[in-house]
Amino acid sequence: MNIFRLSGDLSHLAAIIILLLKIWKTRSCAGISGKSQLLFALVFTTRYLDLLTAFISLYNTTMKMIYIGCAYATVYLIYAKFKATYDGNHDTFRVEFLVVPVGGLSFLVNHDFSPLEILWTFSIYLESVAILPQLFMISKTGEAETITTHYLFFLGLYRALYLINWIWRFYFEGFFDMIAIVAGVVQTILYCDFFYLYVTKVLKGKKLSLPA
């Protein structure tokens, strides 16, 4: 494992922990898109089904279980424990417009037409757009809490580091996965505008605001 993938994994883990701590400490999920979190839970569930069929390493298994566990814990906090604070009126993105096309594409473009491979491909495609309900929610409310922007920053950083990881692996290992790379590029592009606002506003102590 190279430093870029490890850094990407740690950034991903940091994003998840930041979100969970934010919800738990404030006893509120205000400003958090439950739909995005449901999509991420679906991403991890369909991607890590290989936990049932293969063992790669203790690190690999542990990280996968943490991602799955934290994803469902977040969904539970939003839709059950702190449901009264969930802002469903602004979390209105039509997720079927993401899930259905992604599902169809995973059947058409994959590495191998087998159940596990199709589900893995589905998870890769879905992850690239799973943050859209959250970004859409921020655009509707017009602003985001600082802690929420930190979560989004580390989530975007994770994907950017994975892009560098793929470039590294191509040059030094001869590994090339077009599906993962294209999906990663799409996901990183979605974060570009947010990254700019994060650097120019949040890091300077200003609140991130968007035109509603």
Automatic annotation (TrEMBL):
Keyword Ribonucleoprotein: no
Keywords carried by this UniProt record: Cytoplasmic vesicle, Endoplasmic reticulum, ER-Golgi transport, Membrane, Protein transport, Receptor, Transmembrane, Transmembrane helix, Transport
Keyword Kinase attributed: no
Membrane-crossing segments per the record: 65-82, 119-139, 151-172, 178-199
Pfam families to which the protein is assigned, alphabetical: ER_lumen_recept
Biological process terms in GO annotation: protein retention in ER lumen; protein transport; vesicle-mediated transport
Main location: membrane
Gene Ontology MF: a single term: ER retention sequence binding
InterPro entries: ER_ret_rcpt
GO terms under cellular component: COPI-coated vesicle membrane; endoplasmic reticulum membrane; Golgi membrane
Topology term for the membrane: Multi-pass membrane protein
Compartment list: Cytoplasmic vesicle, COPI-coated vesicle membrane; Endoplasmic reticulum membrane; Golgi apparatus membrane
Similarity section: Belongs to the ERD2 family.
Protein name: ER lumen protein-retaining receptor
Source organism (scientific name): Knipowitschia caucasica (Caucasian dwarf goby)
